[in-house]
């Protein structure tokens, strides 16, 4: 009998699951994607700015997997016949904002954590020398701590506040003192189970993840991430239902799953043989009836895109990160047309994209778009040391509650939630396995494999 599989959530994790299901299930298997918003893609969304495709969400993905080889995102792009559309950033350095100016980001660190304190010689940081061998590994097997707690103990406060915080904040918009080492820096957590010093653990993690010399760190899709979204939806052959939130999920007496979806006054229902949940923590907890899943907090951020007049001069950088202690609303900036040379033209606009807001700063984002653009322009000019001209075009993209804040112990909570799942139900996405396009793609593909195994064993 033909099987039906529901994927609740149409972000990249859900779409990657749909593609994998299409590849490994028998012909005729029906795949249905339910997405409560009006569009697929989640945090992958490409917009137009000054006539150029500029990301309103994630702008790139890691080119390589942690253990070598291509990342899950690159592999998916190739599966979708987008391998020839992969582009890479220019070889431009990035900077840190220190004391109202910009300094180069020290080399040789792992998300800001140095493997050798001499790497910080060019930066005015007072690093501690407390990273001594105590005769035992830094962490017990499976132990989790906050990134900030471990690094403060070994290298001191300034390394965390002025280096690790902005590096982690650029990805998570959160603070190192509240973010799980095991989720945000899994390679370092692994080597910390055997190494006796933090510097040694960093060097071991770097050695394990050593990439081919000259190989780009990041990749993107020419034309924008929305191409990846559209190609995945098409290749999956899934039936897509937009604007229809799934409100209830129950097991039927016959062992199938019943979904109640749509508006409360006019509910609709469907029955399927297996379900993949690829939604944020709160809706997942509601559908599962597991309040522990909802313990994950989220940070709100906004992106400000500025198209500056052609010829606007910027520092020769890909962008910069801003430590929280600088007090700015801008936490990071990308000089988009410098970083992505395939977009730059002599007569085209100069694109700058600023990320605004951090965890706990939601109230600072409660301004209208024009005010946020004005703040971004003023702060960017102050940091680069030159007033920016008025943009010829701009936009603001708000991601309310968009970035998960993984507290220590998150991985254990997810493991318990997965262990309690009934057969035929799998979890995928950033709420469970981490942020980043490759992580979400791999998460969706694993969930697809899990439900496939269930369906094969229950034919």
Automatic annotation (TrEMBL):
Show where the Amine oxidase domain sits: 12-451
- In which pathway is this protein known to take part? Porphyrin-containing compound metabolism; protoheme biosynthesis
Q: What is its main location?
A: cytoplasm
Which residues are listed as membrane-spanning?
none
Q: Which GO terms describe its molecular function?
A: oxygen-dependent protoporphyrinogen oxidase activity
Tell me which UniProt keywords the record has, alphabetically: Cytoplasm, FAD, Flavoprotein, Heme biosynthesis, Oxidoreductase
EC number(s) stated in the UniProt entry for this protein: 1.3.3.15
| Pfam families referenced in this protein's UniProt entry, alphabetically | Amino_oxidase (PF01593)
Recorded catalytic activity of this chain's protein: coproporphyrinogen III + 3 O2 = coproporphyrin III + 3 H2O2
- The highest taxon in the source lineage is Bacteria
Where would you find this protein in the cell? Cytoplasm
Task: List the InterPro entries.
Answer: Amino_oxidase, FAD/NAD-bd_sf, Protoporphyrinogen_oxidase, Zeta_carotene_desat/Oxidored
Q: Which cofactor does it need?
A: FAD
Q: Which family does it belong to?
A: Belongs to the protoporphyrinogen/coproporphyrinogen oxidase family. Coproporphyrinogen III oxidase subfamily.
Q: What is the stated purpose of this protein?
A: Involved in coproporphyrin-dependent heme b biosynthesis. Catalyzes the oxidation of coproporphyrinogen III to coproporphyrin III.
Identification of the protein by name: Coproporphyrinogen III oxidase
Q: Which gene encodes it?
A: hemG
């Amino acid at each position: 009998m033909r099987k039906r599989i529901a994927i609740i959530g149409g972000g990249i994790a859900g779409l990657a699951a749909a593609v994998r299901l299409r590849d490994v299930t028998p012909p005729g298997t029906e795949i249905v994607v339910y997405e409560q918003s009006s569009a697929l893609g989640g945090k992958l969304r490409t917009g137009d700015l000054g006539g150029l495709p500029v990301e309103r969400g994630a702008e790139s993905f890691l080119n390589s997997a942690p253990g070598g080889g291509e990342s899950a995102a690159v592999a998916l792009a190739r599966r979708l016949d987008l391998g020839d559309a992969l582009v890479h950033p220019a070889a431009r350095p990035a900077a840190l904002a220190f004391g109202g100016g910009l300094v180069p980001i020290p080399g040789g660190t792992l998300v800001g954590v140095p493997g050798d304190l001499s790497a910080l010689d060019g930066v005015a940081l007072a690093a501690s020398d407390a990273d001594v061998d105590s005769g035992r590994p830094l962490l017990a097997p499976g132990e989790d701590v906050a990134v900030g707690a471990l690094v403060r103990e070994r290298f001191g406060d300034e390394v965390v506040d002025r280096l690790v915080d902005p590096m982690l904040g650029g990805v998570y918009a959160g603070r190192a003192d509240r973010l799980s080492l095991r989720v945000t820096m899994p390679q370092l957590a692994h080597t910390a189970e055997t190494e006796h010093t933090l510097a040694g653990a960093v060097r071991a993690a770097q050695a394990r993840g050593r990439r081919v010399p000259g190989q780009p760190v990041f990749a993107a899709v020419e034309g924008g991430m929305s191409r990846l979204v559209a190609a995945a939806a098409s290749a999956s052959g899934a039936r897509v239902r937009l604007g229809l939130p799934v409100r209830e999920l129950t097991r039927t007496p016959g062992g199938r799953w019943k979904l109640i979806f749509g508006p409360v006054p006019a509910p609709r229902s469907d029955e399927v043989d297996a379900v993949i949940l690829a939604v944020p923590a709160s809706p997942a907890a509601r559908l599962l009836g597991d309040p522990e899943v909802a313990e994950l907090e989220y940070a709100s951020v906004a992106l400000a895109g500025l198209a500056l007049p052609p010829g606007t001069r910027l520092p020769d950088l890909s962008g910069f990160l801003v430590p929280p202690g600088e007090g700015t609303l801008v936490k990071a900036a990308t000089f988009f047309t410098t970083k992505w040379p395939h977009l730059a033209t002599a007569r085209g606009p100069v694109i700058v994209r600023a990320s605004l807001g951090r965890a706990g700063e939601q109230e600072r984002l409660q301004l209208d778009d024009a005010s946020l653009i004005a703040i971004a322009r003023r702060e960017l000019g102050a940091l680069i040391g030159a007033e920016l001209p008025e943009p010829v075009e701009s936009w603001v993209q708000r991601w309310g509650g968009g970035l998960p804040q993984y507290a220590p112990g998150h991985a254990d909570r997810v493991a318990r939630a997965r262990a309690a799942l009934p057969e035929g139900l799998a979890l995928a996405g950033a709420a469970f396995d981490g942020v980043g396009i490759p992580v979400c793609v791999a998460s969706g593909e694993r969930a697809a494999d899990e439900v496939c195994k269930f369906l094969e064993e229950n034919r």
